[in-house]
Amino acid sequence: MPVFGSKPAADAAATWEPQVAASRLAQTAGAAPAGVFTSDLSVSEYVLLGEAGFEPLGFVVGSSIYHIGLQVGRWSQNQELQVLTQAMYNARELAMTRMQAEADRLGADGIVGVQLRLQSYVWGQDVLEFIATGTAVRALGSTGNGTEGAHRAPDGRAFTSDLSAQDFFRLLAAGSVPVAFVLGSCVYHIAHQSAMQSLRQAGQNQEMVVFTQGIYDARELALSRMQAEATQAKASGIVGVNVAVSNHVWGEHATEFLATGTAIRRLGEEHRLPQTSPKPTFTLGLDS
Questions:
Q1: Quick check: 196 and 188 in contact, CB under 8 A?
Q2: What CATH number is attached to the domain comprising 61?
Q3: What is the phi/psi pair of residue 279, to 5°?
Q4: pLDDT(155) > 50
Q5: Boundaries of domain holding 85
Q6: Is 51 inside any structural domain?
Q7: From 131's CA, which of 45, 185, 283, 286 has a CA 20 to 30 Å away?
């Protein structure tokens, strides 16, 4: 089982950084004393982020338009399509790396509310845009008091997380902090059934064992790779795990399994939110 690296190949695309965003970032909080922050936070999330001791710096974006290559699986065999799996990894990592580079320019401690999505265009069915977005944040009062960077990932860079502001608050209150938004991917070819197999199953309740085995293998590969990324990031666990299944452009028997989650680590007791911090509440209106 090859565990694909979390970094894209060292080619021109991997080292290219979009300069068009420089003017926007230069006028954003964190880069300029009088800069304004931008974010995709709701009003409630913005207020709660402040209660957690963080301030938003800017809305950060990473993008990569990627041509998905061709790989043919054997008609009657369950097998991973490794060329396609690698393409899906590389494209997502390029988008994530560029988003994180924008956060680094702003001096952020982390990125919250990360969303990773795909966009197709009319130029061709095999061309997809991978987009990573989030809000760069910084711990309040961390400059010059010896606690600067305490919430960052172990490698010293900004953490990434797909947690909402509410879940981020609860995590900090429990004495933990996000490390990285981790993912595991597997593009898998599910074997076709022969005409005789289909005829034998007609009208019967019967498990389709070959299909079950293929789905199990693909899902386990995705989960194992996500877990390996968390280990590499020096995290102690993963919260909010989700496994999505998508066909994309390859046909009905080639499917991608994508496992995602937020890797976390424990902080020292001195970083735990005080007990007097307000607790998130949910209000249910009585209007019909």
A1: no
A2: 3.30.110.70
A3: -95, 140
A4: yes
A5: 21-142+149-269
A6: yes
A7: 45
